[in-house]
Write a structure and sequence with these properties.
alpha+beta; three-stranded mixed sheet; 7 strands; elongated; disordered C terminus; Iron-sulfur cluster assembly protein; MIP18-like
């Protein structure tokens, strides 16, 4: 018997790469049906024309996440109401990869894109952690020598550590609070003001895109869009 909570927990680890938020939190999972050892997931996005590379990553990640749940023998993930649904759904089901799924229209797989957006997520997370420190009067000289362990515990710090680990950057207590998102090296005091501005701009951009997408999703599907059906058809709100 597959545990419904484990399936939803697995889906909760799948993020929109651009918005850096879980597809369950964003309301992109419209249903999750468990029948015996089979799971059927339906996804939908804010617009008919959301970028197909982002959509492909979410569908593929959802497929892999559900497939790893103990007891699952068959996983189906279907993206609905999207202009490239057929190519994406068929490609993910066949594990064909992005290039083969969009034969003649794509030239690269998506790991480079994923890393680019992870770097943005690290910058946005850095802004969330550092902005209160700056507001409290921390100087660039102080910030430049601080470690993650110096910041204390918070949801924002946990999130930043997680994104840094995903990117292969140092994330333990002794790691520098501010690091270059490509090299992982500590940001020196001279480069720190520009680094913080980049982090701030990235954070604002991610937040604005998230607000726009939530509004578009609400407009497209209304308040009742976040439903999951399980077993014999009973539906529960995610």
């Amino acid at each position: 018997m597959i545990d419904r909570g484990q399936v939803l927990e697995a889906l909760g680890t799948v993020r929109d790469p651009e918005l850096d938020e879980s597809v369950t939190v964003l309301g992109f999972v419209s249903s999750c049906t468990v029948t015996g050892d089979e799971v059927d997931v339906r996804l939908r996005l804010p617009t008919y024309f959301c970028a197909p590379n982002f959509a492909y990553l979410m569908v593929a990640d959802a497929f892999d996440a559900v497939n790893r749940v103990e007891g699952v023998r068959r996983t189906t993930v279907v993206l609905e109401d999207h202009f490239a649904s057929d190519a994406i759904n068929g490609g993910v089901a066949a594990r064909a990869g992005f290039v083969a799924s969009f034969d003649g229209e794509a030239v690269d797989e998506l790991e480079g894109l994923r890393r680019d957006f992870l770097r943005k997520a690290v910058l946005a997370g850095t802004d969330l952690v550092c902005r209160p420190l700056v507001a409290a009067g921390r100087t660039p000289e102080e910030l430049a020598v601080m470690t993650l362990g110096d910041v204390g515990l918070s949801r924002e710090v946990d999130r930043l550590r997680s994104r840094r680990r995903d990117l292969g950057l140092p994330a333990d207590d002794t790691s520098a609070l501010l690091v270059d998102v490509v090299t992982g090296e500590a940001v020196g005091v001279e480069a720190l003001p520009l680094h913080l501005r980049k982090a701030r701009v990235t954070g604002v951009s991610v937040g604005a895109n998230s607000s726009i997408c939530r509004g578009l999703l609400q407009e497209r599907y209304g308040a009742g869009s976040r439903l999951a059906s399980v077993g014999g058809g009973a539906e529960e709100e995610l």
